[in-house]
Amino acid sequence: MGLLRCQQKTPDTEEEEKEEEQKKERTGFIVKRSRSHRQKKLKVKTGPRLTDKMAPTLDMEKLRLGDLIEISRPMYQHWAVYVGNGYVVHLAPPCEGPSVGSSSVMSVLADSALVKKEFLWAVVGDDEWHVNNDLDREHSPRLGFVIANEAMGWVGRTVQYSIVSGNCEHFVNNLRYGKNVSRQVTSATNVAFGVGAAGLAVFGILALARGLRGENKNTE
């Protein structure tokens, strides 16, 4: 009987146990919520999902000092030279830049340009770009650190700009090869000569045809 009396719970004991259980439940809920809260924070710290705009940042790991970078603008190709740590040096006339539409084309009419050092992604914007050292097959490139150091020496200078003899492609090819060449200008010149030659040929054929008609009339 004494043992049974010891196992019996008094009202005070029952209330204490209920409070203890409630306290454990509350504590457990707080722990669960705090863990969930920490997990949410961890998810935020993982950063945003990889997007296409982040791709150039990944590609920059493959760049080497002195690499020439060709950027496809809406109506022409812009050029820059890689100088390390994600930065490029390029010849930038007024209105030249990404996502400026038709006003970017007006940059080719400028007579002066500023040599700038900018982060690659700031120069590229949403335009496509790639490394283009194709002229290495025709000319011997200089050492990468030599190209980068010389490019840095031009930063901040305003230089004379000419779409025919001193554009952004001339600038980077001078740095890499010591050659003042621009394949854009060469291609455009060839096209112009081709169109001109074709026009002269057509004009000659028409003139010859008229001459033959005149002779036929005189014979009759």
Automatic annotation (TrEMBL):
Tell me the first and last residues of the signal peptide. Answer: none
Q: Which residues cross the membrane?
A: 191-209
Keywords, ordered alphabetically: Hydrolase, Lipid metabolism, Membrane, Transferase, Transmembrane, Transmembrane helix
**Disordered: annotated segments:** 1-27
Q: Name one GO biological process term.
A: N-acylphosphatidylethanolamine metabolic process
Q: Is NAD among the key words of this record?
A: no
Q: Name one GO molecular function term.
A: N-acyltransferase activity
Q: Which family does it belong to?
A: Belongs to the H-rev107 family.
Q: Which GO terms describe its cellular component?
A: cytoplasm
Name the UniProt record assigns to this protein: LRAT domain-containing protein
Q: Which residues form the LRAT domain?
A: 68-184
